[in-house]
Amino acid sequence: MHTKRLIEVFRPAIYEDSINEAVKTLRSGWIGAGSRVKEFEEKFSRYVGSKYCVAVNSGTSALHIALKCLNLPKNCEIVTTPITYISAIHTIIYVGCVPRLADVERETGNISVKGIKEKLREDNKAILCVHLGGYPCDLEELRDLASTYGIPLIEDCAHAIGSSYKGERIGTGTLCCFSFSFPKPVTGVEGGAIVTSEAEYAERARVLRNLGIKNGKERAVDSQLHVKEVGFRYNWNDVMASIALKQLDHLEQDNRRRKKIAERYLSELSDTKGVYLPRYKSDRNSSYFFVPLFFDRRDDLARKLYRRGIRSKVYFRRLDAYHVCNSERLPNADWYDRHELTLPINVCITDEEIDYILKTMRGGW
After folding, report:
1. Contact (Cβ atoms closer than 8 angstroms) between residue 312 and residue 343
2. pTM more than 0.90
3. What pLDDT does 227 receive?
4. Hey, what domains does the chain have and what are their CATH numbers?
5. Closest by alpha carbon to 131, among 102, 104, 152?
């Protein structure tokens, strides 16, 4: 096969019904935060099985508001993973807290319960876990640990739309944060949401996303704004919500397609020299937003793939390489940083392109 186009790691599939719905909203005369946002919130909360969904303009905003809802003391520590996007670290700093990094599981890249136990101390007031690539963390153990220490568990579910743990969809925890940015399993081009079953958190999140304004009933004559506290300009809008509403209808079929691609990589690379595969447990299901694969001489492989028209991505590096965190000894995170490479895994990839990727890799690097 000779590739006619670069095979991308992520490529969004925006369906015609999503485009039509966005056009309908654009022509409606109202494109700000309104009925379509509310409709999405109701539909998404039903989908994940939680009581409340508060839509915002990004996954980063969702994390920021979730942490803000906890009223954590300034300068306290929040234990989290070094294998995540920088926004998870930044949002901890936004609320005046200090990120404390725990090691990960080598076989999945998810935060390790054992690693968290090694970092917990009196100053730790919360745990922030990330369901990496859509594969759920050890939630039962994490919830037990959080309960034992009397601290909240926040879940970064940006990759995990449609994932499940022991028969329960991801999103039923105390504070779960989702992202609807362009490559995610459900996209509104941009967007995010805080999902919770706690009415108090949902109410405050709605206030915080709208500059601290508590919305009252609509009146013929505008009344004075009721500003409860300093908030943020984190509103979503009806155009993006319209897109995401219809994209959600395609989620299950898209996740099945990504799973098939992932299973081909996992089965057909299992005997390839220099390849190490993740080990996933049977009590949970991934959305397969991506699957972390590990390679000797990873950078040589990435360069070869690129020369052959195939993109790949290191997803993620150790975050304490940045100035915001103190570097600590985290051997599994180091190993992940040196070996992980994400191969193309999007619903636009053809079976012929997957054949080409695997053939290119079997030739060595």
Report:
1. yes
2. yes
3. 87
4. 16-249 (3.40.640.10), 251-362 (3.90.1150.10)
5. 104
